[in-house]
Amino acid sequence: MAFSIDGIASGLDTTNMINQLMQLEARPQTLLKAKATSTQGFVTALQQLNKQLGSLTELAARTAKPAALDLYTVASSSDAATATATSSAGAGTLDFTVRQLASSQSSVSGSMTAFSPAASTLTLRAKDGTTTELATTGSLDDVVAQVNKADVGITATKVSAGKDADGVQQYRLQFTAQEPGAEHSFAVYRGTAADVTAGTATDLFTETGAATVRAAQDAEVVLWGGTAAEQTVASSSNTFADILPGVSVTVAKATTEPVSVTVSRDTEATSTKAKELVDALRGVFSFVDANTKVTPGATAGAAPTSGRFTGDSAVRGIAQSILTAATAPINGRSTSELGITLTRSGTVEFDAEKFAAALAEDPAVVKDALTQLAGRVAEAGKAASDKFDGELTRRITSQESTVRSLNDQVSGWDQRLEKRRATLERTYSALEVQLSQLQSQGDWLSSQLAGLPTGSGL
User: Fold this and answer.
1) Can you spell out the DSSP letters for 122-169?
2) Which residues lie below 8 Å from residue 185, measured CB to CB, with a gap of 6+?
3) What's the whole-number average pLDDT of the chain?
4) Phi, psi at 78, each rounded to 5°
5) Count of Cβ atoms closer than 10 Å to residue 330 Cβ
6) How many CB atoms lie within 10 A of CB 11?
7) Reduced to 3 states, what is the DSSP secondary structure of residue 108?
8) CB atoms within 10 A of CB 109
9) Smallest Cα–Cα separation from 352: which of 283, 278, 265?
10) Could you give the CA distance from residue 153 to residue 277 in angstroms, rounded to a whole number?
11) Within its chain, how far is the Cα of 403 from the centroid?
């Protein structure tokens, strides 16, 4: 019988054996990777919560500002006037008639083919007496160019004016103020500013064929017309700023009948702000709840799935502090009186009708209560989500550090496993060599035994 080790030297699947051994060696690294992934998921959930809390905090801080809930709406009895109100407005009504609208001056020169036969000086004089000298070549185009380039609130245009009796094309120069109001009226003179002062310059608009098409004037409204208190209020534009505290009126046409502008509290806008705040609160609580629940397995034997925040006391504490800020009594009164109610599921609900009724009954009390509530929420939110020292911010920073440490350990295991694989490969390679040598020796022994004389030959 031949001595053989066949099947050992060449039959071993060493690669597969090494791979299986490496799987066992890599189990600690696999656990580290799983922990790093889980921790990173936790960090992501914390970041999402922090973002929602940041948005809630900003909204609450805006709502808590002193004038944030001083919301007013303005109504006009006529399309002759519109009005806007700011937070400094107050409820009230103002009646007035619109005597006239503001207009800008527009004047044209007489017909001409050139401003002057030779180079000449043009002077613009504003309402306040300010003069601007412009040197021109005498052509109409140059006059237009110089006036527009001067940037003094007046524009010039050359307008075709037909032909004269000799068939020569004529033009007029049209000068228009860029702003309405009497204060923006102007005059144009042939001559220097000194000539204007001396009274020797020629007023362009008094020449033959010249005219002021539209005079500069202020808009005017009349208050308490027909009474001893009648008063005219003028504005260089059609807008009367702060004609009432915080109220600006813009007129569109003259009237003979009084126009009434009524300013009242904008209860709808106030309710909207309250609802926005409650919706933001609900968003935070819903997110925490969704990430805290334990979901049963899909089958009877399947393990349940825990949420990212399941069992996390820090997140639970933050949610509770926000909830307390939103629902704790204000000045001894429950927030439910405002329509903001704590539910059994640990969130809040907004009753718009109840809030509107409370607002209608006592606007000042509701405004103060909502301001305090928003202030408390903003304070609690800032404590949690402040970008420098918020509790969640610090938690995220700590967990990110943990993830980096775990990833570093995983990288260390990569090097360790690489060395281990190299060792195993060397070991099995040496084993193969030894087995091969044994195989050769076995073959030699078999050949020697085969060469010995048999028993019949002795």
Assistant:
1) EEEEETTS-EEEEEE-S-HHHHHHHHHHH-SSEEEEEEEEEE-TTS-E
2) 105, 126, 127, 177, 215, 216
3) 92
4) -145, 150
5) 19
6) 9
7) strand
8) 26
9) 278
10) 48
11) 32
Question: How far is CA 320 from each of CA 134, 380, 382, 404, rounded to the nearest angstrom?
Answer: 75, 10, 14, 30
Asked if 85 and 73 touch (Cβ cutoff 8 Å), the reply is: yes
Q: What is the pLDDT of residues 391-447, one digit of tens each?
A: 999 999 999 999 999 999 999 999 999 999 999 888 888 888 888 888 888 888 998
Sign of CA dihedral 393, 396, 402, 408: negative
Helix (H, G, I), strand (E, B) or coil at 219: strand
Q: What is the pLDDT of residue 106?
A: 98
CA 327 – CA 334 distance, rounded (Å): 7
> Is the separation of the CB atoms in 254 and 198 below 8 Å?
no
**Any idea which residue has 């001083």 for tokens?**
70
Give pTM, 2 decimals. 0.72
Torsion, Cα 277 282 287 291, to 10 degrees, reads 150
Q: What is the structure's pLDDT at 2?
A: 37
> Which tokens belong to 319?
């949610």
How many C-beta atoms surround the C-beta of residue 119 within 10 A? 12
Mean pLDDT within 255-283: 94
CA neighbours closer than 13 Å in the CB half-sphere of residue 79: 0
Segment 41-45 long-range contacts (CB within 8 Å, at least 24 positions apart): 41/308, 42/308, 42/399, 43/396, 43/399, 43/400, 43/403, 45/291, 45/308, 45/309
Distances (CA, A) of 90 to 67, 86, 401: 12, 9, 54
CA angle 308, 311, 314 (to 5 degrees): 90
Q: Please report, in angstroms and rounded to a whole number, the separation of the first and last CA atoms in the chain.
A: 21
Q: Say if CB 404 and CB 397 are below 8 A apart.
A: no
Tell which phi-psi region holds residue 92, choosing left (phi > 0), alpha (psi between -120 and 50) or beta. Answer: left
Between CA 211 and CA 215 the distance in angstroms is: 10
- 174: part of which helix (H) or strand (E)? strand 169-177
Exposed, middle or buried by CB within 10 Å (0-12, 13-18, 19+), for 301?
Answer: exposed
Query: pLDDT > 70: what percent of the chain?
Result: 97
Q: Give the Cα separation of 322 and 280 in Å (integer).
A: 11
Q: Answer for the pair 173, 114: CB distance below 8 angstroms, yes or no.
A: no
C-alpha–C-alpha distance, residues 356 and 351, integer Å: 9
